[in-house]
Amino acid sequence: QLQVVESGGGLVQPGGSLRLSCVASGFTLDRYAIGWFRQAPGKEREGVSCISSRGGIKRYADSVKGRFTISRDNAKNTVYLQMNSLKLEDTAVYYCAARSRHTSLNPKEYNNWGQGTQVTVSS
């Protein structure tokens, strides 16, 4: 059973930072690309960042580029999303998901989803 679990969300003030973790089980992470997505109330799920199986390719949505950094430690079966300079509009439930072969920021191309972790940015 392929499974990913997110953690690290919480409440932060604007300008603050959080680091999200995505831990995989039931499969070997080093053969999967991992994506981070978010969904705010009343909005569609959107791609935030993704990383290739070896970490050589990283992609970011324009809205987070320069503020967020994705990385992975395949030995720990973990992918991280470091989020800095957080804004009110970053408030959402954040999900990680896995797919084989290729990176993508399209949530429709992912089948293996975590349950999400809430990130709230509030003054």
Helix content: under 10%
- Along the chain, the helix and strand elements come as EEEEEEEEEEE
Radius of gyration: 13 Å
What's the shape?
globular
- Mean pLDDT, rounded to whole units? 95
Supply the number of helical segments.
Answer: 0
Distance between the termini: 40 Å
Map the helices and strands.
Elements: E1 3-7, E2 10-12, E3 18-25, E4 32-39, E5 46-51, E6 58-60, E7 68-73, E8 78-83, E9 92-100, E10 112-113, E11 117-121
Parallel strand pairs: 2-11
Antiparallel strand pairs: 1-3, 3-8, 4-5, 4-9, 5-6, 7-8, 9-10, 9-11
In summary, what is this structure?
The chain has 123 residues and is mainly beta.
What are the main properties of this structure?
123 residues, mainly beta, seven-stranded mixed β-sheet, four-stranded antiparallel β-sheet, 11 strands, 50% strand, globular
What do these coordinates show?
With 123 residues, this protein is mainly β. The chain is built from no helices and eleven strands. The chain has strands at 3-7, 10-12, 18-25, 32-39, 46-51, 58-60, 68-73, 78-83, 92-100, 112-113, 117-121. Strands 2, 4, 5, 6, 9, 10 and 11 form a seven-stranded mixed sheet that branches. A four-stranded antiparallel sheet has the order 1-3-8-7, with no helix packed on it. The radius of gyration is 13 Å and the shape is globular. The model has no long low-confidence stretch (mean pLDDT 95).
